[in-house]
Each structure stands twice: as structure tokens, then as C-alpha cells.
């Protein structure tokens, strides 16, 4: 996945949004409280008290959320304990901060008349509402993470299944070619063995890593295409184009391999005569684009060129699923018919 450092860390942006939202909520609460108990305070003084109480309460909730022991508790007791600590801390601590800001003597923080009881009850209800919203958001976030993890595991399982389907096909054909080359052209057989070792080593590494670089991915493609060019001879020509500034870009492993294998297996191997494959990477606005072009048989005339599931084998579907898992709707895979023949598969990855 491409990582671009933001000038403002994500946790700081989240803190700014949380503070701004709490400030606005407290301002609304101050207006409602003045409407409910106009004799309690002047609007400006009431605003200062409500804002201080709200900010101290939010800060207390945020600090408590950093404690590992509290975060490991079950949801209900965790939020009950958070409320039991944060509500009185926010109420009393906020009043003390407000008195300091107003440069007033720290005297009686809580009154006992009916107006102060209205204020206390209102603050209690508001704090419970905020805790409920926070608990709901926390639960939804955990469920989203669980769904994402489940989808990622399912996609990885499909990738392992895809490897189990593709590698034997490639290995059996390569070994059959090697058997004939050992007697006919030992030097070519040695070269094929060397490239097979490179390919298998990179495939094994990709099976253990969650991300790889475009440089490593292209190295694996080069080993695979070298093997295929030895097998197919002059019928296959290939070109890889990876700009130096894109070599360290991180992507999911084995993302491009199925596209190249599909180009050869379904486009070039069944075709009579020579053909070629080109894998081209380039920067685009907002990310990168990698195109896999072939001059094979092309798309079937009765199927659309939009790259829908009906034209996708297991490899293409896996690529599309992994893009969605890693990047959501920001990434895409599309298929286009080339003229006069062949297919272009285009992967777009966001920055």
C-alpha cells in the first residue's frame, strides 16, 4: 500500500475534530440550559462554565481511553467505570477551571437551589448521551475492523488457492520444457533453472509478506517472463518499464502476476504466431498506474471490455478483491480491448 506522510499526523487531526465537535456541542448545551433556567447565570458566564465542564469531561474520557487495562475490559463495565470517573471529574473540575478563568474566588462549586439542580441534571443527561455516542462509535469501529480482518483473511485464502492452482500448471510445463532442453541445449536449460529458482524464491517470499515493492514485483515478473520466453521461443517478446522513482512504492504481493499469466495463458499461448507482453508503470494524479498490455487473441467479441466478473478468471477476480480490501473504492482494475488485437489490463492505486 502506498504511504504518503501527511503534514499533520492523523491522531492530531482526530483530536482537533473531537475538540471542535465538543466545543460546538457545549455551546448548544449552554443555550438550551439558559433557555431552561434563565435565572441561573448570565449567558456569557454560563457559556464559560458549560464549556469548561464539557472540555474537562471530554479530556477525562480521552485520558481514560489510553489506559490499557481499562481498554481490555468488556464494553459495558468499561463505559460505566469511565462515566463514574469522568462525570464528577468534569463537573467539579470544569467549575474550578471556569472560576480560575473568570478570576473569581474558588468558593461553592455546587449550589443547592432548584436552578442549580436543573443545571446538574442537564449536565448529567448530556454526559450520559456523550458516553452513549462514544460507546456506540467504539463498537461500530471494532465491528468494522473485524469485518475488514475477515475480508482480508478471505482474500488471502483466495490468493493461496490461486497460487495452488497457477503454480503447478506453470511448473509442470516448465519441467517438461527442461527435460527436452537438457539434451538439446544444456545452456538454455541451465538458464531456465536459474530463472525458476529466482521465481520460486520470490513467490515464497511473497507468500509470507503482506506488502512488497514494485521493484520486487517486477523482478518476479521478469523471472516468470524469462521462463516463458524460453518455453515459447520467438513467439513471446516482453518489455518491463518501471521508472526508478516508483521502485520503492509498496503494493500487495503477487498483484500483477495473475494479470501477466492471464495475458500469456489466454491471449498469447493459444494464438498462432508471435506476440508480446508489456508491463508499464507510471505516476498519475493521485497515485500510480500499472498497465499490462498483450497482443494476444483479445477479449471474446460477445463479452464487454469493461472488466466485469464475466470476463474475469480466478486471477482477475482475486486482483480486484485484493484491491478493494487494501484500498477500497480508491483503486481499480479495468480491461480494455486493444487495436488491432490484444487486451490492456490497467491497475490504478491511490497515493
From TrEMBL:
Keywords of the record: Membrane, Transmembrane, Transmembrane helix
Keyword Membrane on entry: yes
Gene3D superfamilies: Histidine kinase-like ATPase, C-terminal domain (3.30.565.10)
Keyword Plastid (UniProt): no
Chain ranges passing through the membrane: 12-34, 46-67, 79-101, 116-135
InterPro entries for the chain: Bact_2-comp_sensor_kinase (IPR050640), HATPase_C_sf (IPR036890), Sig_transdc_His_kin_internal (IPR010559)
Domain Signal transduction histidine kinase internal region: 157-236
GO annotations of cellular component type: membrane
Gene Ontology molecular function: phosphorelay sensor kinase activity
Domain of life: Bacteria
Pfam families in the record: His_kinase (PF06580)
Name of the featured protein: Signal transduction histidine kinase internal region domain-containing protein
Amino acid at each position: 500500500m502506498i504511504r504518503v506522510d501527511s503534514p499533520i499526523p492523523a491522531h492530531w487531526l482526530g483530536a482537533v475534530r473531537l475538540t471542535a465537535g465538543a466545543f460546538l456541542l457545549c455551546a448548544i448545551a449552554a443555550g438550551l440550559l439558559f433557555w431552561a433556567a434563565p435565572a441561573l447565570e448570565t449567558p456569557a458566564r454560563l457559556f464559560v462554565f458549560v464549556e469548561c465542564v464539557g472540555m474537562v469531561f471530554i479530556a477525562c474520557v480521552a485520558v481514560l481511553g489510553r489506559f490499557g487495562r481499562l481498554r481490555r475490559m468488556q464494553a459495558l463495565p468499561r463505559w460505566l467505570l469511565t462515566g463514574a470517573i469522568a462525570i464528577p471529574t468534569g463537573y467539579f473540575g470544569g467549575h474550578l477551571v471556569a472560576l480560575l478563568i473568570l478570576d473569581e474566588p474558588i468558593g461553592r462549586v455546587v449550589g443547592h437551589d432548584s436552578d442549580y439542580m436543573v443545571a446538574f441534571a442537564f449536565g448529567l443527561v448530556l454526559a450520559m448521551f456523550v458516553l452513549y455516542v462514544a460507546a456506540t462509535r467504539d463498537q461500530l469501529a471494532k465491528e468494522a475492523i473485524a469485518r475488514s480482518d475477515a475480508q482480508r483473511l478471505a482474500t488471502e485464502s483466495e490468493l493461496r488457492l490461486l497460487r495452488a492452482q497457477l503454480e503447478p500448471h506453470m511448473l509442470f510445463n516448465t519441467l517438461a520444457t527442461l527435460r527436452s532442453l537438457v539434451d538439446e541445449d544444456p545452456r538454455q536449460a541451465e538458464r531456465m533453472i536459474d530463472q525458476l529458482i529466482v521465481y520460486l524464491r520470490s513467490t515464497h517470499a511473497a507468500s509470507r509478506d503482506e506488502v512488497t515493492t514494485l521493484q520486487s514485483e517486477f523482478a518476479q515478473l521478469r523471472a516468470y517472463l524469462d521462463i516463458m520466453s524460453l518455453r515459447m521461443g520467438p513467439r513471446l517478446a516482453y518489455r518491463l518499464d518501471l521508472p526508478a522513482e516508483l521502485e520503492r512504492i509498496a503494493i500487495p504481493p503477487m498483484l500483477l502476476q495473475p494479470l501477466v499469466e492471464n495475458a500469456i495463458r489466454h491471449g498469447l499461448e493459444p494464438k498462432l504466431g508471435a506476440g508480446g507482453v508489456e508491463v508499464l508503470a507510471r505516476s498519475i494524479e493521485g497515485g500510480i498506474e500499472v498497465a499490462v498490455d498483450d497482443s494476444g487473441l483479445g477479449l471474446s467479441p460477445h463479452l464487454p471490455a469493461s472488466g466485469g466478473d464475466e470476463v474475469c478468471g480466478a486471477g482477475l477476480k482475486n486482483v480486484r478483491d485484493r484491491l478493494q480490501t487494501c484500498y477500497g473504492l480508491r483503486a481499480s482494475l479495468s480491461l480494455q480491448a486493444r487495436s488491432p488485437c490484444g487486451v490492456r489490463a490497467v491497475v490504478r492505486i491511490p497515493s
